[in-house]
Amino acid sequence: MPDNNDVPAAFKTPTRTRSEKSRPSAFWILAGLILPVMNVAARYEIIDADKFPRTGAFVFAPNHYSEIDPVVMGVVAWKLGRMPRFLAKESIFTIPVIGAVLRKSGQIPVQRGGSVRGSEPVKAAQRLVDQGQMVVVYPEGSLTRDPDLWPMRGKTGAVRIALEQGIPIVPAAHWGTQHLMERYSKKIHPFPRKTITVKIGDPVDLSQFRGRSLDMATLNEATAVVMVAITSLLEDLRGEKAPVKRWNPAEHNQKETGRFEA
């Protein structure tokens, strides 16, 4: 963790003095509908929950390998006292029920490929930051193509928001979600009850990039640092090492969107 004087103000000086969950909102209705189902389907083991910021704006960056990831990580955020807002690819918003829930709770769709294109996602993220709210961004942009579900190469949306807004980016990894819903599957397997383990990391140190021109070289370099942090957390959960070379769909003649093809 960097010295307190180097931590962005949005992180060390909370903009809210009480939990977001204490304020009546549409999330109460959604939580009432979703939590009972998700608690029956899975138990959640959250490691290093104290590293999850309870107040202030930040980017939450998890790994991504199941269509139900946003619901799972939304439940985790709620259990840790925050109302999750997502910057997620548009295709997720077309999934029945899940898409409707995401839209009604103020989530932010991003164009194909997971990039932050156009002004609306950026403006929406700015509004959330101004209000001291968290933004969940999947750096991979889409479900990993790695055959063994390791994080693949990252895209720059998460670090761009963190660097442009001067807020922390907190990495996380989860494992076990694939047993609840397999990659690209539309079917949930709630029985028997699954265990989903989540590990929260320290804020990624991006101090070497602050003040630099946010060109693609800088953003890609910063994104690589974030992906290393996420992968390290997943290695701890899985008890094994990830491949030395991160999976890159372009090197395997794979499209950025759509189903995985070996």
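That was protein one. Protein two is written in the same sequence-then-structure order:
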Amino acid sequence: MPRQTTAPRFLRLPEVLNLVGVTRSTLYRWMEAETFPRQISVGGNTVVWVESDVTKWMQDQIAKQ
């Protein structure tokens, strides 16, 4: 039986902010410090984050506690 995989899901900025629960300036400060996954440009003025990268970062933060 073939293994079912899930396609990567992109998150836009409002979704990331809601998921992580921080302000835009905090998120960009973390990216500048290279402590949060960077966004990916998908054309024009559109940037996204890979959902699995964001959730892994969140899990890593929980594991540090």
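The mean pLDDT is 94. Keep this in mind for the problem set.
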